[in-house]
Specification:
With 172 residues, the protein is mainly beta. The protein contains two helices and twelve strands. Binds ribosomal protein uS19.
């Protein structure tokens, strides 16, 4: 098994808010409320400095306003605009039994429930109705697999294997 990703991109700092050092973050997570329990995060590639969260509130359906400890002026946070924020696995949220981090799924083998090899998972497209798995075959053909229990009955992260039950036309 390959090493698991240790840091997850949580969002991007898009602007400041107010004059007291608050920053607005566009989240890259589907669980926007997780920011309210966030203790710290990292910015960019620097994994030494933890930016401590004083408070976080939802600004809208697609942004969060965060106040960092020790950053009390607009000038102190302006250099952070445009940078990505990351959390380590320790600060990631607890997954339900049927949930997986996309980063842990990328690269896993995909085969039918009969054992026919299809390819490797290369991407996950996220839509409102359901996710779609992008699988690249050995012939470089891409297959779009709806992430539903009917079509994807088994995902084994330990053995890095996804089993699918394709409907007619799915693999044509």
């Amino acid at each position: 098994m390959t090493d698991k990703l240790e840091y997850f991109k949580l969002g991007k700092i898009v602007t400041t808010r107010g004059l007291k050092g608050e920053i607005k973050i566009y989240p890259h997570t589907d669980k926007i409320d997780r920011f309210k329990d966030l203790e710290y995060f990292f910015i960019g590639n620097d994994r030494e400095k933890k930016y401590l969260v004083e408070r976080a509130v939802t600004a809208s359906n697609n942004s969060i306003v965060v106040k960092l400890k020790g950053y009390d002026t607009i000038e102190s946070v302006q250099a952070l605009i445009g940078k990505f924020i990351f959390v380590d696995r320790e600060m990631s949220y607890q997954l339900d039994e049927d949930e997986f981090f996309i980063a842990d799924m990328i690269g896993m083998d995909v085969e039918t429930i009969e054992g026919q090899k299809i390819g490797k998972l290369v991407d996950v497209l996220q839509y409102a109705a359901n996710d779609v798995y992008v699988v690249k075959g050995e012939d470089s053909k891409e297959y779009l697999i709806p992430a539903t229990y009917e079509i994807v009955p088994d995902i084994d992260t330990e053995n890095r294997l996804m089993k699918i039950k394709p409907i007619p036309g799915l693999l044509d």
